[in-house]
50S ribosomal protein L11 methylase (Leptospira ellinghausenii), 308 residues
Amino acid sequence: MEYRELKVNLPKELSDPFYELLDSLQCAGYYEILFDGEAPKEKDQGLIRDNTNIRIYLQTDEVEKELKILIFLKLHAPNNSNSESRIIETRDYEEAYKEYYKPFPIGNKLWVIPTWEKNEPNTIALWKPTGGIPLFINPGVAFGTGHHETTKLILEHLDSLYADGKFLFQSACDVGTGSGILSIGLAKFGVSKIFALDIDPNAVKAAWSNWTENEYPKGFQFSVEESGIDNPKLSKEKYDLAIANITFAVLSQNIRHLAKINAPRIIFSGIITEKKDEFLSLLQSHLPGKLLYSKEWNEWWVLDWQKN
C-alpha cells in the first residue's frame, strides 16, 4: 500500500490551529519532528527553530485533503511556510518517525523510551542504574511522543509531585489521551485505576498498545474508550485527579462538560500564553477554585487547578 507524505514547515505559533485542521481531516497520521537535520539552518540560528516541521500522511487519492492543507499554509503563512509531497510505501511510512524518536529524560526520574529500543542494553543503561522510571512508547499515528511542550510540562509536573517517592492520587482520568503516555506515567507513579478517552480511534488503539508494552504492579486497572468530553463515566465515577492535554479551543467549547468531571483536581495543558488568562476566567466561572501551580515553556502552559 502507498501513502502520500507531506513535509510541512510552518511557524510554531500556527501549530495549534494546524493540528486542529489535521484532526478534522482525519489524516492517516502525522507527527512533529523536534530536530530536523535535513532542514536548512538560518544564520545565527540555535538548535530550536522558530518554525516547526511536521510530516503528514494521506491516502494517495486524498487530493482534496492535501489541497486544504496547502490553502491553510497560503492563508496563514504565505511567506513563512513551505511543503513538499511524495508517494511512499507503507513500510516507509511506518518506519519514518523512528529515525527521529530516541530515548530522552523528563524531570528527575522519567525516561521516555521507544518500544523498539526497550530491550537494548545501551537503552537500559540510561535509566535502570539510577532508578529511573521508563515509559515505553510507540506513538504511531497518535499525538504524544513526549517531545511536545504540553506533554513534557505535564510529565515534569507529575514527576515533581512524585519527588518524595509517594503519589497522592489513586484514581485518575486522562481526557484526550493520545498515545497514552500520560496515563502510563500516572500508572508508573502509583495510580491504580485509570480511565482514558480520545475522539481519535487511532489514539485509542495506540494507547492500548502502549499500555501493554509497560509493566505495572498487580491490581492496576486501565480502560480506554473512543469518545468525547461528554462521556458519562467522567461525571458518574469519582477520580482523585483528571488530566487534559487539549487545546484551548476544544476546552473552551466543552467547558460545561469539563465542569461535570468528578475530580477535585484537574491538570490542564495545551494552553498558549495569549489564551491563558481567558481560560483561567472560564475555570473560575464554571469550575470555581484556585490555581495551585503553573509553568510556561515556549508559550505553552501547564495549569494545576484545585476545585472548591
About this structure: The chain has two domains: 2-98, 133-307. The chain has a mean pLDDT of 87.
